[in-house]
C-alpha cells in the first residue's frame, strides 16, 4: 500500500520545520564556533558529561544519549580528546571497557561557552515564542518522540 501524499498544509508545515531546524542548527553552530571554538556537537557531548555523575559516561551511554552512530561518536571523541576536552579512562570493573571523562579543559570550555549559547537559543528561538507556544512545542515534541519510540519498538 502506498502512503498517502501530504496535503498542502502538511507539506508546508513539514518543509518549514525542516528549514527551521537546519537554519537554527547552523546559526547556533556558527555562533558557538565564533564565540568559543566549540561546535554544536562538542557542546552536546560536554553537556551530557557535565550532567553525569563524576563527569564521566561509558561510550555506549553517550552514544544512546546523543543518538549518534558508534563510528561518529568514536571519531568525534578522538578529535575532542586531541583538543584536551575529554579523555578515555579504563573501567576498573571491566578491563575491556572505558569511560569518557570530562577534563578540566572541557569543563572550562563549556562554562565559558554556555552563557553565550543560552543567549543565542533565547534570541533565535525561545523569544520568538509566547509562553503558550513554548508549552505547545513541548507537548508536540513529546508526542512525536513517543511515536518514534513506539515505532522503534515494533
Automatic annotation (TrEMBL):
Name of the protein this chain belongs to: MarR family winged helix-turn-helix transcriptional regulator
Q: Which PANTHER family match?
A: MARR FAMILY REGULATORY PROTEIN, TRANSCRIPTIONAL REGULATOR, MARR FAMILY
- A Pfam family cross-referenced in the UniProt record is MarR_2
Q: Where is the HTH marR-type domain?
A: 10-146
Q: Which SMART domains match?
A: HTH_MARR (SM00347)
Taxonomic path: Bacteria, Bacillati, Actinomycetota, Actinomycetes, Streptosporangiales
The signal peptide annotation in the UniProt record is none
Amino acid at each position: 500500500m502506498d502512503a498517502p501524499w501530504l496535503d498542502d498544509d502538511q507539506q508546508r508545515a513539514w518543509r518549514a520545520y525542516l528549514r527551521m531546524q537546519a537554519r537554527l542548527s547552523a546559526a547556533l553552530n556558527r555562533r558557538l564556533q565564533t564565540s568559543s571554538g566549540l561546535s554544536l556537537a562538542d557542546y552536546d557531548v560536554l553537556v551530557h558529561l557535565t550532567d553525569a555523575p563524576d563527569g564521566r559516561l561509558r561510550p555506549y551511554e553517550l552514544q544512546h544519549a546523543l543518538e549518534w552512530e558508534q563510528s561518529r561518536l568514536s571519531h568525534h571523541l578522538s578529535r575532542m580528546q586531541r583538543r584536551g576536552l575529554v579523555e578515555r579512562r579504563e573501567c576498573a570493573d571491566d578491563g575491556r571497557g572505558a569511560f569518557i571523562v570530562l577534563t578540566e579543559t572541557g569543563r572550562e570550555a563549556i562554562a565559558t561557552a554556555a552563557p553565550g549559547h543560552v543567549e543565542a537559543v533565547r534570541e533565535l528561538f525561545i523569544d520568538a515564542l509566547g509562553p503558550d507556544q513554548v508549552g505547545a512545542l513541548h507537548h508536540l515534541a513529546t508526542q512525536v518522540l513517543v511515536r518514534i519510540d513506539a515505532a522503534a519498538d515494533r
